[in-house]
Amino acid sequence: MTDQPDVLVERTDTIVRLTLNRPERLNALTADMMNEAATAVEKFGDDPTVRVFVVTGNGRAFSSGADLSNSASNGPQVATLDAANRLIRALRAAPQPVLAAINGPAVGVGCSLALAADITVARESAYLLLAFANVGLMPDGGATAMVPTLIGYARAARMAVLAERIPAPLAADWGLIGQVVPDTDYDAEIARLTTKLANGPTAAYTRTKRAFNAMALAQLDQALDLEREGQSALFETADVAEGIAAFKAKRTPGFIGR
Q1: What residues pair up with 119 in beta bridges, in sequence order?
Q2: Residue 140 contacts residue 183 (beta carbons within 8 Å)
Q3: pTM of structure
Q4: Which tens digits make up the pLDDT trace of 210-223?
Q5: Which stretch of DSSP H or E encloses residue 237?
Q6: Quick check: 71 pLDDT over 70?
Q7: Contact criterion met (CB below 8 Å) for 96 and 118
Q8: Which helix (H) or strand (E) is 5 found in, with range?
Q9: CB–CB of 51/14 below 8 Å?
């Protein structure tokens, strides 16, 4: 047991580090966690003395995705979805660069969260996975906009529909993430990049990010709204009920297509 919060928010000089801190649950994300992280990003994003955000996970995972343990009714599911959308929007709106330090598996909305960063660096042993279809859902957290933009429609569709693990080296080769680092060099590389970003031309980073948002990610807000609409409808289906039940029971789901 620990008295530590589920999201650690640590500021050191010009650096703000957000650490997902439920290692015993592989940093499964709740609405409260994502709202807490979003509040921190919104607060420090308005602080001109902050020059970089780092987002990572504690333990052996970046995040295993949304916490499905409280998903018996539609209300908690929609609240989690709304919190995820708030966090993704906050990360993209923050004027500072965001570095995702992908220390382990980034799954479901955890994958979406990692990809919302400006700079993405993963351990060689990590993997990314849009696992939504495994429980009868569609990708959310902006993944329907970000993933095709990064790797093209064909690969994005394969990730979304087949829910296959993408090892970090392959993710880097595809362009899904920016860099993969041997596990032994990972901590040093994250420290190096964090320092470089914190000492870099912050105003130029801000203008660059704003232009990327306007051009490469122009459809992100629309995608988040469409994902919310689609996911809310899917939450009511028999397939999602079966998918979540199968996930909890650690068995293969028997989908019926509705």
Answers
A1: 99
A2: no
A3: 0.97
A4: 999 999 999 999 99
A5: none
A6: no
A7: no
A8: none
A9: yes
Instruction: Determine the Cα–Cα distance for residues 87 and 78; give it in Å rounded to an integer.
Output: 14
Number of residues in the chain? 258
CA distances from 68 to 29, 40, 135, 152, 170 (A): 9, 24, 10, 29, 28
In this prediction, residue 1 has a pLDDT band, given cuts at 50, 70 and 90, of very low
The answer to whether 76 touches 31, Cβ cutoff 8 Å, is: yes
- Find the helix or strand (DSSP H, E) in which 36 lies: helix 31-45
20 DSSP β-pair partners: 7, 57
Which residues have CB under 8 Å from 72's CB, separation 6+? Answer: none
Predicted local distance difference test score (pLDDT) of residue 72: 53
Question: How high is the mean pLDDT of the chain?
Answer: 96
Cα–Cα distance list, 117 to 1, 15, 55, 59, 238 (Å)? 31, 15, 8, 20, 34
3-state secondary structure of 239: helix
**Per-residue pLDDT tens digits for 35-65:** 999 999 999 999 999 999 999 999 999 999 9
